[in-house]
């Protein structure tokens, strides 16, 4: 549909519904004398919001809320994907501390607004990090990159741009996927469908289902792909499978929208984890990419990420960027400066960059060692079932296969907090807490069906 046609009718619909609500309110007021003529005044206790019902907690972030309320000394939060040290503490990377010191000591830095598109240097370096130093699309200025509010904000801005300017409004997301995806895309105006991804029987990729579903997707549809370390399953396609997915998608004109929240966390190597995205860029086609530095630089609360759109020509890319600015400006005007400055300081300096890759690898390795430890602990207890998926799965999470009843049992009896789909954040585990988790899983599997 032509977006110019869409807006007048939808805005008139909105006006009519506001008017209808207004009239209903006036009628109610006139029937009920006890309601003040000025309901927002403090003269009575009738809140204009009294009809508001309590919303549910977020399925992932709500786990932390519940965890924080638990006074137990043995409680363990394996809900949100946030890295913890062996001591169970959040980690600020050394290289981030160094970059922050550089920034603080640089008296020429000011706190002016950034441009709508963010810190230019950060944008360039982010595109290079994912697409590679010698990427022709970058050299030909066919990529536009805008700084956004971490991965979530990048997805949202990309989705709003697509809803306004792309020929298709349907986006296919994997089944299952990160719980926020359907909400982000629906609220941005896209219509969400799913493609088969995970096979619970094999605890692996349902490649045939994926191929069938993408083959029957309508031409031009958008397809959300996890760039690496699929959340929540920890199951990624092989490079050969990626190549088949690429060919299939390009032959049907499907639009790839990559979500990269874990670059470096899958293999421990930033370039290796970028490979699937680079395969799609190398064929000269178009795509979108949402990047997050929350996990791989440990910059969670700095809300720093980027949206890149790879286009066919520099001219198109420039026009696309001008429209991204029109999406961003009324949403949050322009992005925050601090996180972008940290990332840029690290990415542009060879020593700091190298130091980052070492720290990143150490995080990835610690997660892998937790996989091994948990697997061995379950084997030692003789826990019924095949737990080899714990060591096979990739990235921050293990998709255990535990059901929601078993999860609530573990929370109630063992004070272990995780999402109800049975996902555990391996990054929240330490050598000290593995036995406690293994005991809990063992009891849950034995006692709860
Ligand atoms: N994509 C994926 C796949 C993802 O797992 C997350 C975060 C994000 C994007 C967004 O992250 P941001 O902080 O906006 O850069 N996932 C973890 C945290 C969360 O749910 O917010 C999680 O799954 O635990």
TrEMBL record:
Keywords, comma-separated and alphabetical? Aminotransferase, Pyridoxal phosphate, Transferase
One GO term of the biological process aspect: amino acid metabolic process
- Could you confirm whether the keyword Transferase appears in this record? yes
Stated EC number for the protein is 2.6.1.1
Provide the Gene Ontology terms for cellular component. mitochondrion
In which domain of life is the source organism classified? Eukaryota
A single GO molecular function, which one? L-aspartate:2-oxoglutarate aminotransferase activity
> Which cofactors are required for activity?
pyridoxal 5'-phosphate
Which InterPro entries did the record assign? Aminotransferase_I/II_large, Asp_trans, NHTrfase_class1_PyrdxlP-BS, PyrdxlP-dep_Trfase, PyrdxlP-dep_Trfase_major, PyrdxlP-dep_Trfase_small
Mention any Pfam family matching this sequence: Aminotran_1_2
* Domain Aminotransferase class I/classII large span(s) in chain numbering: 75-441
Reactions that this protein is recorded to catalyse: L-aspartate + 2-oxoglutarate = oxaloacetate + L-glutamate
**Chain's role:** Important for the metabolism of amino acids and Krebs-cycle related organic acids. In plants, it is involved in nitrogen metabolism and in aspects of carbon and energy metabolism.
Additional observations = In eukaryotes there are cytoplasmic, mitochondrial and chloroplastic isozymes.
Q: State the family named in the UniProt similarity comment for this chain.
A: Belongs to the class-I pyridoxal-phosphate-dependent aminotransferase family.
Record note on quaternary structure: Homodimer.
Q: What is this protein called?
A: Aspartate aminotransferase
User: Whose protein is this, by species?
Assistant: Salix viminalis
């Amino acid at each position: 549909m032509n977006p110019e046609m869409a807006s007048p009718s939808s805005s008139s619909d909105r006006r009519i519904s506001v008017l209808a609500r207004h009239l209903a309110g006036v009628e109610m007021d006139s029937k009920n004398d006890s309601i003040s003529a000025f309901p927002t005044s403090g003269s009575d206790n009738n809140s204009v919001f009294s009809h508001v019902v309590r919303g549910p907690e977020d399925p992932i972030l709500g786990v932390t809320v519940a965890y924080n309320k638990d006074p137990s000394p043995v409680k363990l939060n394996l809900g949100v994907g946030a890295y913890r040290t062996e001591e169970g503490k959040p980690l600020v990377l050394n290289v981030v501390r160094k970059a922050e010191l550089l920034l603080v000591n640089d008296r020429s830095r000011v706190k002016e607004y950034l441009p709508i598109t963010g810190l230019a240097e950060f944008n360039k370096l982010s595109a290079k990090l994912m697409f590679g130093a010698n990427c022709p699309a970058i050299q030909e200025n066919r990529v536009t990159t805008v700084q956004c509010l971490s991965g979530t904000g990048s997805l949202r801005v990309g989705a709003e741009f697509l809803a306004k300017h792309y020929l298709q409004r349907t986006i296919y997301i994997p089944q299952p996927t990160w719980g926020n995806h359907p909400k982000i895309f629906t609220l941005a105006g896209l219509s969400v469908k799913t493609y088969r991804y995970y096979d619970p029987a094999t605890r692996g990729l349902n490649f045939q289902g994926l191929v069938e579903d993408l083959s029957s997707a309508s031409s031009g549809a958008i397809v959300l792909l996890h760039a690496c370390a699929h959340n929540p399953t920890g199951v990624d396609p092989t490079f050969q499978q990626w190549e088949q997915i690429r060919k299939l998608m390009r032959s049907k004109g499907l639009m790839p929208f990559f979500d990269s929240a874990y670059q470096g966390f899958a293999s421990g190597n930033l370039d290796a984890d970028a490979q699937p995205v680079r395969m799609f860029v190398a064929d000269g086609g178009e795509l979108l990419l949402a990047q997050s530095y929350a996990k791989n630089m440990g910059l969670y609360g700095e809300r720093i990420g980027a949206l890149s759109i790879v286009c066919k020509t520099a001219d198109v890319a420039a026009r696309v960027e001008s429209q991204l600015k029109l999406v961003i400006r009324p949403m949050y005007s322009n992005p925050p400066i601090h996180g972008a400055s940290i990332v840029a300081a690290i990415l542009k300096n060879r020593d700091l960059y190298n130091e980052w890759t070492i720290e990143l690898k150490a995080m990835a390795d610690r997660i892998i060692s937790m996989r091994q430890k948990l697997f061995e602990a379950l084997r030692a207890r003789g826990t019924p079932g095949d737990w080899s998926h714990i060591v096979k799965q990739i990235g921050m999470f293990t998709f255990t296969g535990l059901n929601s009843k078993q999860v609530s049992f573990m929370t109630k009896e063992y004070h272990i907090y995780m999402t109800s789909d049975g996902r555990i954040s391996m990054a929240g585990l330490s050598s000290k807490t593995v036995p406690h988790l293994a005991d809990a899983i063992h009891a849950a599997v034995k006692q709860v069906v």
